[in-house]
Amino acid sequence: MADIPVPAGRAAAKRRRPTVIQGLRNGDTFAHVFTLLCAASILLVTAALVYQLYANSTLPLHKFGWRFLFESTWDPVNGDFGALPFIYGTLVTSALALLIAVPMGVGAAIFLSELAPPRISNGMTFIIELLAAVPSVIYGLLGIFILVPFLRQYGEPFLKRTLGFLPLFQGPAYGVGMLAAGLVLAIMVVPFIISVSRDVLMAVPVEQREAALALGATKWESTWQVVVPFARIGIMASIFLSLARALGETMAVTMVIGGTPAISASVFAPGYSIAAVIADQFAEATGNLYIHTLIELGLVLFALTIVINGLARLFIISTTEKGSAH
Amino acid sequence: MRKPLTFTIMMAGIALVLGCFATFHSSSAVPAPAAPSTLTGAGASFPYPIYSKWFSDYNKLHSDIEINYQSIGSGGGIKQLLSGTVDFGASDAPMTDEQLGQAKTKILHFPTVLGAVVPSYNITGVPQELNFTPEVLVGIYLGRITKWNDPEIAKSNKGVNLPAEDIVVIHRSEASGTSYVWTDYLSKVSREWESKVGRSTSVKWPVGLGGKGNEGVTGLVKQQPGAIGYVELLYAIQNQIPYGKVRNSAGEFVKADLASVTAAASAFSKSMPEDFRISITNAPGKAAYPICSFTYLLVPTKIADAGKKQIIKNFLTWMLNDGQKDAEPLSYARLPKEVVAKELNQISQIQ
Asked: Structural domains in chain B?
């Protein structure tokens, strides 16, 4: 096989590099530019959104400043507003939702990936993924007509009787309130956790499981101590995805949270979340300060989600060992 | 694809040709029908049932006129009217001086129907009608009266076995005209309420749960033992929840119904201001129900489009004469005759 002589040198290199027209023809440059535009457009839309939120919040920003984040009043008549009850409500309902949904979801995912026979696993996963697509208003209706009466008549009195010594479970049992909102959110985010976690768990190489079993581990030990840690990153990603959904969830929370801008230690108490107050009051709000304050609340929610997601990303990065497979 | 550039140009060309084809085809094959004149309005949700009936009846009478109405709430209606995106607005509460100052032209208020706000309740073992005095209502909503068997409530309800149940106060979570009427009444009968809370579509409620919309409050009252909530009369009747009598300024306990509401409006018809912006809560007179309000259509005086101007004037005339008979079957009270006469005069102010 004779070597084909390749001309060397700069001039020759220039001749070898494709011209612009050739680049367009073979699609490389076009693909490069097109996908760049797509990525840039998302950033542009986000930047425009933040700019609009900020530009429309200047009035309350000047009037309240940073104390907006720490005040609790909500007085449209006298123009005095504070965001603390809404931030509190958003965080508490999301935390409650995750507290309930994560064990349930990860447990279900482990069952579906490790312990269930394949037919059952596939069938149940199909149904669970359909649940993830149900609109949130339906969950809100489920909350109002089924969950709230149940909580008022059985759930909350039961918690009061057994755990009533904790300030967390004191106060009158209205049915609507933080607990109802947290439960509805939990029901909404569980399908996400299950479906993503199950996928990640099933992607763990079978050699890992076999190695653990070969070393004498029981099935549970191999699952809990080898497989789940291996899939840790994906499971955490699913948890943060559901946290993002819970923070921003509007309709379902509005319908069951009880519409009261107040901070209370008890989960039975009615409260309010940022998304819920905007959904409730924006359409009828009159007066520039009122409207712009609601927009500023939107900015606060945006910042909140950025901060929480950023912390989540940092957490994932810090717990990923260098040189690990993922 | 060997040559993506050529492919892209080809596809673009085909799309262009098909597009031209479609426009030519549609414009030449089917002559465009005469477009109906349309009017758009937006605002209060309380009168939406009767407004939608009126607009559809009017369209049946004049098939070339379409009036679209979006019930987005009184505040939204005022906002849209001020920004000029709708031809007319609708609101339960009259516009404030500040809002009128923001308008480019003078805005006229046309009362359309009357509504009443009633205190509905759900007390275990008490299905009958209760009597509420203004002091009791203020006390409940300020959080001073917390149990149903409080002596102040028992005083006006002799013979009723009131249980020692906690009162669960329900109010509206979002801004609403109904809240405005309720807080306006409480402000009139109590200095304490006026200074502590005030009157507005959205206030800082001292106690209570927030329900979304009249429907939300009704739902919460029905489900929650011991609840009290204020709702429009229509909702209380349709959902069959008990609602109480309220003592009016003449000392009589009056139940809200069409006659007592019209009586409240009539009491003010002599003192009705020129612009119809009046609060008719706590009306004088023995038969008047104290918690009612007009609901208004908000129409600009200067309307550029002559066709639209004529449509609005004709519609308002029709509404004041013929449309009023649709009010009572839908549980709205009709306007008193004197008010109708004054409004017919006001129509001529629309230039």
From this structure: 38-114+293-349 (3.40.190.10), 116-271 (3.40.190.10)
